[in-house]
User: What shape does this take?
Amino acid sequence: MAIPAVRFSRVNKSFGQVKAVNDVNLDLHPGETVALLGPNGAGKSTTLDLLLGLRNADSGTVEVFGTTPARAIAQGKVGAMLQSGGLMEEVKVRELVKLACDLHPKAYPVQQVLEHAGITEIADRMVNKLSGGQEQRVRFALATAGANDLIILDEPTTGMDVTVRQSFWATMRQQAAQGRTVLFATHYLEEADAIADRVIVLHRGRVLADGSAAEIKAKAGARRIVFDLDGEVDEAALRGLPFLTALSVSGRTVRIQSTDADATTHAVYGLGLYPRNLEVAGLGLEQAFIAITDAATAEEAAR
Amino acid sequence: MNTLASGALIKLEITRSLRNKKFMFFTVIYPVALFLLISSSSSKADMIPHSHLSTQLYYMVGMASFGALTAVLMGNSERIAKEREKGWVRQLRLTALPGHGYVISKIASMATVTLPAIVIVELVAALAKGVDLAAWQWAALTFSIWAGSMVFAALGVAIGYTASGDAVRPITMIIYFALSILGGLWMPFTVFPQWLQNIAKWLPTYAYAGLGHAIEQGDAPHLRDILLLVAYLLVFAGGAAWLYRKDTLKA
Assistant: This one.
């Protein structure tokens, strides 16, 4: 088994009474593109800080390529783009990117980094005169100044317009295709859905769900079945359907959420019903995500 | 590789300092203005009591040292505290740059602006105030005031890391005034009571002023002063490098 790119073993981190990271175990494997999802305050940023050695865990160990985060960074294995990461002022964009290249043990040529980040045209501007989206691209350039094996991105597309966002993810996919591990935290759930081959849902410092986007959706009962019935609707019978997680009936229209749409639909016919206008659709990750975190909040409240 | 990396940052920091015209101007003008102001009260022939030093010479060394100290201490602590708040230091910590590379680059960028400040005070003193020294004394004075100021540049880095936000300026000011006055940069040290002199003798500013005053009198700087300054430099720079690595302040 290859060394994991990232390994969290029973990691805890508290700020006063708040457990920002609560007993997290996590392995990221080389070549994975992983989305870190969670509402505000879920512990995403703290998790990334621990991973980068900007903070130390209260207990447990964080390893990056089998060593400490600081050492992995010194070896040029990690590139990161943080929300809280600022830029040096009073210098030109090109000078700053050149600095990042000079500091990187496995640097790319400056011109190439500028091109990939789409900042060739603003290379001679002063850093403190940039717009938010431009700043974000400069940050991206700093994070990808060299051949990193692991790329960490904290809400990278904040402030980018749609075109830039698309070209950004195209570059990121390229990186992943070259066998790099990409971990990104995001608020844009469709991004996680479209880009990540693994989604980790964090909630109150714990890993709530971990799997492919499809698995996460399934976990939340994330297929929706809608059909109309002729005649009386027997709600009690419908409630007994297998794999059903939610049911709502309005008039003759039945809406069901199911973790196994195939089996549930089959059972509808098994009841001797004849559903018309049958539709089976996947829920977006967003609804799945809300369903999972809501369930966890309710569970905690019940305790 | 790491040395090379530090070199890149040093170069960029120097470029930045030179580009910052306002900061340059202030740093260069301030010590000269102070020197002219303070020395105007005494004539070219005045002597420091109980010594064979001219008042003008004494003030020249004091103000050149004081000006350099002001620039590096204020310049570094405030700029670094600001960089920390903006998150640049966080970003920099995600590179392979070692902690000492950061501290050295900050000291180097300050050293580029203090050298012209020192030279200009000396020029004004020589041309307008009739200060007359041997060639070796000019060279030695320039070098020792310049090199000595790096101790305070390191202190500035350390302060920039210890304090943040609104606290930086007052903390820097307190340290700055205490060090300048007690170290004898403003007035002859002998005006203090004995107990204060005993404490002041261990201050880096005392040793710093001592370098210049030894050269004024035609001596080589005292070994004690040099060792004391080197010790302070190691403590300040080492502390600053440690703080750089451990700082976890969030923006």
